[in-house]
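### Sample
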Amino acid sequence: MCRGCVETEYPGRGNTCLENGSFLLNFVGCVECNKRDFVLITNRATEEEDGEEIITYDHVCKNCHHMIARHEYTFSVVDDYQEYTMLCLLCGRAEDSISVLPDDPRQAAPLF
């Protein structure tokens, strides 16, 4: 992973978890070829471990194939919630949790 290619290392992204794609606003340019172009996704792999889906891939420079960052996205169902996480030098870190029920019990207003 290359810290020189990104503006901010592991920026906080709130609840924005990317299963695919790149956060290009954080890409300052490739330190190897000094170009700021598209970022390719390579070595994409999907694994399933104990009910958790893990997707990993590499962000590489379109021109010289310099590796910019390794992206990891996870998805699992815990109790009545879908849990998402993302960790990547380029795209950042984020977590999200969404209820699988029609009405999220965490969002219900108290009756009293």
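The chain has no helices and five strands. This sample (Protein Churchill) is used throughout the tutorial notebook.
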